[in-house]
Specification:
Length: 314
């Protein structure tokens, strides 16, 4: 059997086995980017697959064909064939005319039409590029506090063609129409707690957001130390606060996914070795599963994907 086919067959088999035990998961397979490498950790906590990767990524995707979309460095997005451990596609963002500063990429997404959406800090825009690296669409972002490292964190193109963009330093989640107009905004606040600097501190520096099927928006509040769901009017209708889960302290809330059963999986980054790096909760805020694996992922696991079962939102 071809090595790539064998690898993909292994993923399908493991996914099927894990879904069968999803009622009471003892573990989950996780793809993560940290400590200078990409790695898949199996349900028993063992390294199933890994390859070196220099960048400390903020975004990460397992594509339908089993390839991995991730960072190579601060300004380069790559698609990797895991079976061969080879880059099969890449795109490097460069300063656009009139801008001479650094470029960083903190979010990207493979779209249904085959284009790749990329959020470029520094350039302060979202682009969509084809397989030849041609920019097919570009849209400027309205950044209040420009910073080539912190203009954006995660961004996603929505089913309606709009873009949901987390602007970290601005402390805001904006929904942009394709023409660059902002049609919806949610601004984070300190939730009644004093601001505290540092990676383990408290602030309004938002990291991720997903638009749910019913129209609400689920937000990974970054150093807001909480997970919140807001309705279209901006009212918080559900949340998990920094000290609400027994025995767990929430710090920088990062990666975000909704499983088919409605459970939410989110990243808890910079929280130290006494806290899990990934947490799965049900809608009653019961902790269903956690990943606590410092030997493999350390304190900076901001980009992680649960591979079983597949996420219901991307």
């Amino acid at each position: 059997m071809h090595a790539r086919s064998a690898f993909l067959l292994g993923i399908v088999f493991c996914l099927s086995a894990s879904v069968a035990h999803a009622q009471a998961p003892e573990g989950r397979r996780v793809l993560g980017a940290a400590r200078g490498r990409l790695a898949i950790i199996d349900a028993q906590g063992k390294v199933e697959w890994e390859m070196p990767l220099k960048s400390q990524g903020h975004d990460l995707h397992m594509l339908p064909d089993g390839d991995v979309l991730t960072h190579k460095d601060a300004a380069t997005v790559v698609e990797i064939d895991p079976a061969r451990k080879e880059i099969v596609w890449s795109y490097t963002s460069r300063p656009r005319p009139g801008y001479n500063g650094p470029i960083e990429i903190h979010a990207f997404q493979r779209l249904d039409d085959g284009l790749t959406m990329i959020a470029e800090t520094g350039n302060r825009r979202i682009i969509e590029v084809d397989r030849d690296g041609v920019i097919v669409h570009a849209m400027d972002l309205k950044i209040e506090k420009p910073n080539p490292h912190r203009d954006t964190r995660l961004a996603r193109k929505l089913a309606n063609g709009h873009y949901l963009v987390c602007q970290e330093l601005d402390g805001a989640v904006h929904e942009y129409a394709p023409d660059g107009s902002i049609v919806w905004t949610y601004r984070l606040d300190l939730a009644g707690r004093p601001a505290k600097p540092g990676h383990d501190g408290h602030g309004t520096e938002v990291f991720g957001a997903l638009r749910l099927a019913g129209g609400n928006t689920l937000i990974a509040a970054g150093n807001g130390n909480r997970l919140i769901e807001v309705d279209p009017a901006g009212k918080i209708v559900w949340s998990v606060d920094h000290d609400e889960l027994p025995g767990i302290e929430l710090k920088w809330i990062t990666s975000l996914a909704v499983l088919p059963n409605g459970h939410v999986v989110f990243g808890n980054t910079h929280a130290g070795p006494d806290n899990p790096q990934l947490i799965e909760v049900d809608r009653d805020k019961k902790v269903v599963w956690t990943l606590k694996d410092f030997p493999n992922f350390g304190n900076d696991l901001a980009a992680a994907v649960v591979l079983d079962p597949p996420t219901a939102a991307r």
